[in-house]
Specification:
This protein is of the alpha/beta class and 386 residues long. It contains 16 helices and 13 strands. The strands form two sheets. Strands 3-2-1-4-5-6-7 form a seven-stranded parallel beta sheet, sandwiched between helices.
């Protein structure tokens, strides 16, 4: 049986969104399916972080996998750019095991010296494609370095969308047939239609509202949401706007003057929310707004659709792939167009009903089991050297 070693370190993060969310959901499904012999690799210098215990808690009851732990290097040092640690020996020497295929679930860090076949997931190229929205120069440098290493090592690459595949082809010399799309999925145990007035009331929500729920990052279009909301309030003065999510430290938040538009008593900022709160917010909203300027996938689109909420999102990058014919697509730089579509949807109950119906059907096309099946196929291709 093919032996696959999967790096699992980012699953030990305290915030279960983004890459940790991807790792946990994908690895659990792969272990449950048990098609191959799996091992999980972690780095925890002197066992200070307790990574093994966290990994065991996340995965032990989903399937059997050996854990290979390197206690001479901290994962943080690798994240901080000490790539020479990877370069002085083969990756297998650090984790003291061999494998047919090694899977790294993010564009950095990954080794340049490896005996087995290497697969890397690239979720997006935001710091490369839109550096103006990245307020961390170090992050841009890490992405550039990883692109250079990918050109040198020529790994098989997995991506979350066709749009990201196109981006990688433009930025590297990796051939398109070595880049494989494995779509993500929402967590169906969390995202489903369930109205909960008590949760909404506890959050301070009174009356009908529209919703934005994702990281607080200007790239995701919160600026034009606020502008559009300000413009359409005269037509629908009873509609509130709820903005939920935590600040994404790696990317640009709103300029101070933009928040002046949020001073309306109808705009509610609720911060980071729990899974139950997310489900209640998405299930209860009249409309979900996600006019992002760039996404590698755009998971909030699926989550909102799975909760039966009509969606307006962007006509760029991966978002048309995720939304299909179930969402309304707009220019993410046009607050005027967003305001027009908001008024059109809010003014038609039949349109909202049709969007809810289409959204539920679109969300049902995605599942983590399907993602795992597609990933297994890529593992097999890597072993065969294709």
């Amino acid at each position: 049986m093919m032996k696959v070693i999967m790096e699992a370190q980012r699953a030990t993060s305290s915030q279960m969104r983004g890459i940790p969310y991807y790792i946990i959901n994908l690895y659990r499904q792969l272990l449950k399916r048990a098609k191959y012999e799996y091992g999980l690799a972690v780095f925890d210098k002197d066992k200070i972080r307790g990574s093994r215990a966290i990994i065991e808690e996340y995965f032990w009851h989903y399937g059997i996998a050996d854990i290979f732990e390197c206690n001479s290097i901290s994962y943080q040092s690798l994240l901080d750019g000490d790539s020479w640690l990877y370069e002085k020996a083969f990756y297998e020497d650090y984790i003291d095991t061999n494998g047919d295929v090694f899977f790294f679930p993010n564009i950095f860090p990954f080794p340049t010296r490896l005996k087995g076949k290497m697969i890397i997931t690239v979720h997006d190229l935001i710091p490369i494609k839109l550096p103006a929205y990245t307020n961390n120069p170090t992050l841009i440098d890490k992405y550039k370095s990883s692109i250079e290493n990918m050109i040198k090592t020529q790994p098989i690459v997995m991506v979350d969308s066709q749009a990201t595949k196109v981006d990688i082809v433009e930025c590297t010399n990796i051939k398109p047939d070595r880049i494989h799309v494995t779509y993500l999925a929402h967590d169906s145990s969390i995202c489903f239609p369930e109205k909960n007035e008590s949760i909404l009331s506890a959050l301070g929500i009174r009356g009908p509202y529209m919703l934005y729920l994702a990281a607080i990052d200007i790239r995701k279009g919160i600026d034009i949401i606020l502008e559009a909301y300000h413009a359409m309030q005269r037509t629908f003065p009873e509609i509130g706007l709820v903005i939920a999510g935590a600040v994404d430290e790696g990317y640009s938040t709103l300029p101070r003057q933009m928040w002046e538009l949020s001073s309306s008593p109808k705009v509610l900022l609720v911060g980071y929310v729990t899974d139950d709160q997310k489900r209640a917010l998405m299930s209860g909203a009249e409309l979900f707004l996600f006019p992002s300027k760039y996404e590698g996938f755009g998971l909030p689109i699926l989550e909102a659709m799975a909760c039966g909420c009509p969606v307006i999102t962007s006509n760029v990058s991966s978002m048309p792939e995720v939304a299909g014919d179930a969402g309304i697509l707009i220019d993410p730089y046009s607050a005027e167009e967003l305001a027009h579509e908001i008024e059109r949807v809010l003014g038609s109950e039949s349109l909202r009903s049709e969007l809810r119906k289409r959204g539920l059907a679109q969300a049902a096309k995605f599942s983590w089991d399907k993602t795992a099946e597609q990933t297994e196929a890529v593992f097999q291709l890597a072993k065969e050297g294709l």
